[in-house]
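User: Show me a protein chain along with its predicted structure.
Assistant: Here is one chain, sequence first, then structure tokens.
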Amino acid sequence: WFEFQGTEVGGISGISYDRGEGIYYAISDDRSQNNDARFYTVDIDWSDGTLDDGDVEFTDFTTLLNNDGVPFPENGVDPEGIAFNGENLFISSEGNVNEGIDPFVNEFSLTGEQLNELTITDKFLPNNDGTQGIRNNQAFESLTITPDKRFLYTATESALVQDGERPTLENESASRIIKYDLETGEAIKEFLYFVDPIPVAPDPEDGFADNGLVELLALDNSDTLLALERSFAVGVGNNIRLYEVQLQNTTNIQDFDGLINPDDPDGELFDVDAVAEKRLLLDFAELGITLDNDEGMAFGPVLPDGSQSLVVVSDNNFNNVTPQVTQFLGFSLDIDSIPAVNPTVETPDTNRIETGVDSDDPAIYVHPNNPNQSLVISTLKDAGLAVYDLKGEVLQEISPETPGDVRYNNVDIVYNFQIGDETVDLAVATDRANDTLAIWSIDPQTRQLTNITAGNLSNPTASIFGIDDGEQTAYGLATYTNPNTGETYAFVSQRDGNQIAQLELISNEDGTVSATEVRRLDVPIPEGGELDDAQVEGMVVDQELGFLYAGQENFGIWKFDAEVDGSNDRILVDEIGENIQADVEGLTIYYGDNGNGYLLASSQGNNTFAVYEREGDNEYIGNFFVGDFANIDGAEESDGADVINVPLGNNFPNGLLVIQDGANEPEAVLQDPEDGEIQNFNTNFKFIPWENVANAFEEPLEIDSFSYNPRQINVNIPTVSINVEPETVSENAGQYTLTFNLSEAAPAGGLQVIWSETDADDAFGDIEFPPELTNASNLEQLQAAGDELARSAITIEEGATTATVTWTTIPDEESEGEETTTIELIETEDYVVDPENQVAQVTIVDAVAEEIIGTPEDEPLNGNFGDDTITGLAGDDTLVGGGGDDSIIGSRGNDSLYGQDGDDVLEGRLGFDHLFGGDGDDEMNGGQGRDRLNGGSGNDTLSGGASIDRFIFATNQEFDADDIGVDEITDFVVGQDKILLDRTTFTAINSIATEFATVTSNNAAATSEAVIVYNSNNGGLFYNPNVSAGGFGDGGQFATLSNGALLEVDDFIIRG
């Protein structure tokens, strides 16, 4: 400890950041014993992104005044937590049970005056007989305020007396987190948080040890916090752990004064449906430092690297006997917040205890004529089925005559089902109570449902899984209509089992619909689990791609082939873990174009929805949660969900997501009459515009309202693209191939693909007909209509995914220059055109041999596909042969000669010339002057001529014997000419000074320790990356010096 302005600095148990002023307020837990109760103003220098000695400076202190405007008397307060709301400070006190002083959470000005008191309910206040309230020094150690300044959280350090014991080495302790609404000053929720058991035993064993929840820090405005747990054990020291805490789904236990079950002989607690979810972020023991009594934490400024600063402070307990320190620890955090999406409509509240209604699974019905008249049909379990309009209002309730006669668990829609001469839309639901299906027709005019379940399904003896015990019975559901056959199926999962039955729906002459099983799938029992741990509920079928997705609640998401004759093999899309947490519940698909879109899955364990790519391997994208908006609460513990992309009237122009809210507000938190569990029994459905979901992500999700309509499923419509190779050909019998690529196999009868030809210079007059076809037939010229361009078509054979048309050019003796044809795919209703590969272009180059003679100026001279003769004359010219076997002469000037294709002859003659052979076996002569010769690919003959020349070996890629060839150097002069080797090609070279050797046989070259090896007997020059391992590995011979030159290391230049 140390003194500051006459006060003893110590007991720093809480800290809060004033972002506007860039300073911190730190509370001392001095009970007015050393000095008056107070808080300090602290400056922390984060400017270099680190926290070092000297970066923390105490700049002021402020005395706290009680309600009478005077300092607190000795032992009259135990200040522990502090939180700044942008104007004032909230400070918590643990009170003093032994002295009869109650805890508080009060508001103070920055000058120390008490302004307000938050209500502390009686359950937290100790009574005279010690059977209720906080334990001494175990009250409100923590304090935090949400970023929007609306809500404040505090917590008991461990259990209230009536909530159980303090932590032990074996048992955790039931702390309560309290949430206050600062607009009203009232506590609105209490959450159950289990403090860890004491992690380490004291030494000696009967010494003091404890653990507690000492600090909270709000991460967002939606019940996500950081929590700091601190333990101490005599003879061992402190253990500090930082957790992320999710409160979104946590049951509100505010109305329950105590959690100990009075009927339990062991004093066990009542079960609470949903408690605070905690995830360990950091065990401070991993820091490798001596830890002290860390109790406070606060965010600070954003650091120079863009991360968030966090400071953790310790309370030294004013301990001078066993010296403790006031410790400031600095951390850098990368905070990835989960985006919130806002609902705009909700259905009426339901309360299972009072009414038997338990909202579970929704299905969106798209009206055939008026999108505003679309419906949401939902299961209510024992209470039957409900039909809602898009305002969330009930249009119809289908209830059993006797509660419990049915249990409708999941529901899905079937469009355009044929019953006799009539086409109807169906709602299909699983009846868990009777292990069967229930089926209704949907009247789009009245928007009412009529039961048309066939007798073989509604008969009491009906059973899908053959057990019919109300447990291992029909549970999850997904329907699928095969677009090729028109057959309709229902996939039904088994409650408390691992089976999935595929049933075909069948229309009967009496207008009813029955079903018969055609296939059985299964999912694995999780390792170490029982059969009932394997159950699947949430399912959805991709109506276009033909995949069934099944959510195994305690394991992950599986993907199956949805076709009756498809494989029963399953693919694991994602497993319970970081992206999705048990239970895995509602699955639904948002459709985009060409197989794009998203798979959504309810991650019930953390009250979010996971989003995956619909295409390919279903890559994970991210999560979102449904937050509060206006007067509509968010959604937690979501079971079923359904999404549609099509516009649904004025309120949902970009589509709609409907989800079940398993913990609706206002809460109806009661004890289950069967097992006493405390839970919220109010459920309903939330309607969310799709754009609210799409735009919540940093990289917005796709909004595509028109590529898919569930009433008009066009599956297996291929996307067609084209490409042409090569793009440039000679008219001299050159060939080019136009390739058509299909994303789906051509259907029965083949697929006619149409294209147009834009041909301003009669290039099509220079090709032979008919062309060669593969996987195609019926090449025809179509009749152009009006101003349309001329069109052609082929029919791609059934089952093919690619087809080609190969044309051969016609040789002639006319000089015509280049001719170009542009080929463009035309979209039809039978396929979709890939816009990125809709146009191809081919250029036909004249093949007539030309003699091209330059002028005295600097100029480019270009040949064509013929066997050209190009002479540069004077000037620094660039001469390009192009196709054909060309003769290129530089003459005077410093010229650049490019042979390109063909077996060319290049002569530099006068000047400092650059000669590039290109493809083919070329002859190159530099002539007079300092020339550079690069043969390119092929087996070339290189003659430098007079003066100092460089022979260059570089291919812009790693050495490949087929690309580089073996060039003959005819006139290498040792000590004058140079051989340049580029490291891009000769990658194994480090230092030529130590990696060159001369040998007298090719075998010796292959086993040499050197990388560049010269056989002086035959002039062979080798690249030997394999060194002494035997053989040349990926290397080989690349040159022959035919004049018998005796190379030395100084004759080489290494580039790169």
